[in-house]
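[Q] Does anyone have a clean structure-token version of this?
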Amino acid sequence: MSINSVNNPPASSSQLSVSVQQSQTSSSASQNVSSTVSARNQLNAQLVANLDVSTNTDGKSLSLLYRTAIDSINQILSDQLNGGAGAQAASDGQTAQGAQQTPNILQQKLSEDNSPEGTSQRILSGALSFFSTYAKQHPELSQEEQAKNFVDIVRGGFEKGYAEAVDILNGLKVFNGNIADEIKKTRDLVNKGFDDFIASMKPQQQTDSNAG
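[A] Here you go.
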């Protein structure tokens, strides 16, 4: 005699319905919690899929650095300039949208100057373009203090993006030779640009005194 029906009675249709609903609810909650991670993973997957970085003759590895750096700077500025969960949600949405548009973005960037000099200038231009907004939000600070604090913020975003690009290139086992040299040179140029920006915001009298 079979005892399966005794130990494991068949589930009723209502029980099955509840089970399915619970499973769907759990799945939906899990998707919401991991939305940011999924968007980031999707972005990185598309970046790698669209970049043949075995050589750097066409500047594709620097396009990768540009994309990860700008994405990280955008996220940190969104939080600093707008604040709160709303800004984070907007940033998450932008990341997901960016992941979908990555191939087109890369094609556009590959048509530009992807040398260390050109890439660093585009990163600096994008990052520093938000300084006036930050300055207006902090009128209690001197212009030099505003510049120092702002650069601390965007430099942190850049370094995060730089580390992400290096991790990707290391994963592909191509972060060496010319690629590593140009990525590092771009980082040095970006940091020099940040330092020069701070120096340019020092009071004129102090600058003249130092020059004399």
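[Q] Thanks! Anything notable?
[A] The longest helix spans residues 143-171.
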